[in-house]
Amino acid sequence: MTLPSTQPEALPPDALADVLVVGAGATGLALACDLARRDVRALVIEQQDGLFPGSRGKGVQPRTQEVFDDLGVIDAIRAAGGRYPKMLTWRGDQPVREWDLIAQDATEPGTPYPAPLMIPQWRTQEILHERLLQLGGSVAFGTRLAEFTQDAEAVTAVLESADGDRRTVRARYLVGADGGRSTVRRALGIAMDGETVDPRPALVADVRIDGLGRGNWHAWPEAPEGALLLCPLAGTDLFQLFAQYATGEPALSLDEVRRLIGERTPLDPEAVREVRWASDFRPRAALADRYRAGRVLLAGDAAHVHSPAGGQGLNTGVQDAYNLGWKLGQVLRHGAPDSLLDSYESERRPVAADVLGLSTRLHRAGRSGDPVSVQRGKQTSQLGVGYPDSPLTAERRTGLPEDALRAGGRVPDFELPDSTRLFDLLRGPHFTLLAVATPAPATHPDILTREFAALDPLSPGLYLIRPDGYLGLATRDAADLADYLALVSGQHAGRAM
After folding, report:
1. Could you tell me which residues come within 8 angstroms of residue 369 by beta carbon, excluding any fewer than 6 positions away?
2. What is the pLDDT of residues 160-193, one digit of tens each?
3. The pLDDT of residue 302
4. Nearest Cα to 175, choosing from 39, 338, 328, 350?
C-alpha cells in the first residue's frame, strides 16, 4: 500500500485559470477530472502536503460507481475495493449473530453496479489523483487559500505555499471543496445550520491487528463505555476501528488504542501492531444556507456534513462535483449563460437535505441494536436521486404510464439494438439525443445523436440526456429541442455549441 509522494507540486507559472478548486479531497479531485476532460483549466490547491491518509469514507454507492465509470476510473476503483462482509455481533468473547448490514442484491434492472463497494477513502482519492494526472491536470500541495475577492469578471485569490511564498491568481470561478471547516464558506459568511446527531464523541482509526478474522465486520455493541467495531478494509491488511465514548474523550495514540481494544474486546492489546491514522469527531448534521455567492460555489463537506451512517458523505460530494462540472463546462466553453450555475444549488441542496435526514435516522436507529432498522439497501444507493423540479427539467409529454421514465430522472442502463449498452453511448462529456421512432433534428456536434426505430423501454419521442446521465428533455415535438439547448448552452439546434 503506497500513498502518493507528499512533495508539493509547484504552482503553475502563469496566474490565470478557468476554475480555482480549493481542496483535493474526493469532491475536488472528481470535479478537476470532469473539468479537465472538458478542456476547462482548473487549478487545484491543497493545504496539506499530500492526499488524505485515512479510510473515513469507505463506501462507494452504486450511483457513484456509475459516475466513476464515466470519469474513467471504475476499473481501478473496483480492482482496489471489494464487497462488504457480513456483520458479526459479539458479546464479550462470544460470537452472537452474523447478519448483513448491506442488502446483498445480486442484480438490479438498469443498474450495472447494484451493490455498494468498500474501498478506503485514501485509495479512492489516490485513484482520482492518478486520473487527473493522466488528463493533464495536477494538484498544488502545501498551498493554502490566504484570501480572495471577486468582481464581475473573476475571482482574485492570494495563495500561500508552505514556505510562506505568496502569489496572486485570477480565476473565472472558485469552488470551495475544502471540507466541513471550509475556509471558503467562512470567508463568504455563509451560515451552516444544523444539529448534533450524537453528543457522544467517537474515534475512527486505521489499525493493523493480529489474530482477528477478516471474513466479518466485528461489532461489540454492548462493550463497556460504548460500542466498538472493527471492519476489515478491502484491498488492505488494515481494519477500520470505530468506537463511541460514553465518558471521556478519544485518545489517538497506539498505547491508548491498545488500551481501548483490551477493555472492550477479548483481543490481546498487543495484537494491535500499528495505528496508521486516527481521528476523533462528534456526529453532526448541517447544511449551508447557500451553495453560491457570485463566482464562488461550495461543494462536498463545505456545503453539507452529516453522520457517517449510511455511507453518504463522499458519495454526495462526488455527485455535487459531477453536477457542477458539466455546468461550468457549458458556461466556460460553450457559451451558456452564467445563470445556468444557479441550477447547481437548486438541484443539489435538496438532495443534501434528504441525505442529512437519512444519515441521522440511520445513526440513531443504530443505537437500538436492531439489525433491520439499520440495514442499507436502495435507500442509500443514491440511484433514486433525481431533479424533477429543476429549472433544467422539461417533460413535454402527457398521458404517460406510471412507470415511464420522466424528465429529471436518472437514465437507467439497458441494451441497445446493436447489443451494446446505453451507458457505453453516454460515457463522455457530451449531451446525448435519443430519437425513437421520431426524426432527429439537426443538432450541433457536441450532441451525440442516435436514431432508433424502436427502443425498449422508451416510447416514441426525443430524449435529451444531460452529461451527468439525467434526462433533461423528453418531448414528441422537435421544436422543444431548440428552446432547451438555448437554456443550457445559449445556442440553438443547428448552431455551434
Report:
1. 221
2. 998 999 999 999 999 999 999 999 999 999 999 8
3. 96
4. 328
The CA distance from 331 to 339, in Å, is 9
- Report residue 385 as a C-alpha cell: 436521486
Cell triple for residue 5? 509522494
How confident is the model at residue 392, as a pLDDT? 97
CB atoms within 10 A of CB 449: 17
In whole angstroms, give the CA distance from residue 42 to residue 39.
9
Which pLDDT value is given to residue 493?
47
Number of H helices, E strands in the chain: 12, 25
Torsion angle in degrees (nearest 10) through CA of 491, 492, 495, 497: 40
b/e string for 453-462 if b means 16 or more Cβ within 10 A? eebeebbebb
Low-confidence ranges of the chain (pLDDT < 50): 1-14, 368-376, 493-497
Among candidate residues 179, 124, 177, 139, the one with its CA nearest the CA of residue 50: 139
Cell of 476: 414528441
- Asked whether the CA dihedral 283, 125, 104, 115 is positive or negative, the reply is positive
Q: Report CA torsion sign: 363, 367, 373, 377.
A: positive
Nearest CA to 155 among 165, 143, 164, 145?
145
For residue 45, CA distances in Å to 197, 232, 274, 325 come to 31, 32, 31, 17
Alpha carbon distance 469, 372 (integer Å): 32
What sign does the CA torsion over 284, 290, 292, 293 have?
negative
**Given the C-alpha cell 446527531, which residue does it identify?**
197
Q: Show Cβ contacts of residue 491 under 8 Å, excluding neighbours closer than 6 positions.
A: 334, 335, 444, 485, 497
Contact 469, 326 (CB under 8 A): no
* Structure confidence at residue 283 (pLDDT): 75
Identify the CA nearest to 314 among candidates 112, 137, 85, 67: 67
Which residues on adjacent β-strands are paired with residue 214? none
Using CA atoms, how far apart are residues 112 and 70, in angstroms rounded to an integer? 12
| Predicted TM-score (pTM) of this structure | 0.92
Contacts 24+ apart (CB under 8 A), 224-227: 224/263, 224/264, 225/263, 225/264, 226/200, 226/264
Phi and psi torsions of 116, nearest 5°: -60, 150
pLDDT, residue 102, reads 76
- Distance CA(137)–CA(277), nearest Å, equals 28
